[in-house]
Amino acid sequence: MPEIKARIFEGHKFMWDGKEYPDQEQALKALKAYQEQNFEAKLVEEEGIFHIYTRRLVKEVVVEGKS
Predict the structure, then answer these.
(1) pTM across the whole model
(2) How is the beta sheet containing 39-46 ordered, strand by strand?
(3) Would you kindly state where each structural domain of the chain is located, as residue ranges?
């Protein structure tokens, strides 16, 4: 079973996307794709390998219930 990694950035929990990007260009392309899908994303370089950590941004809260 793969290891699940989480990190805290600025008081918020981000989850690793599970991929290792060998170069910054590929990582930035993936980072942009996550951001376009309404994710907050952080790019981290660790020993020459790039990792992306993401969290979903809440844009709208819908409360359903009895009126």
Answers:
(1) 0.79
(2) 6-9, 12-16, 49-56, 39-46
(3) 6-56
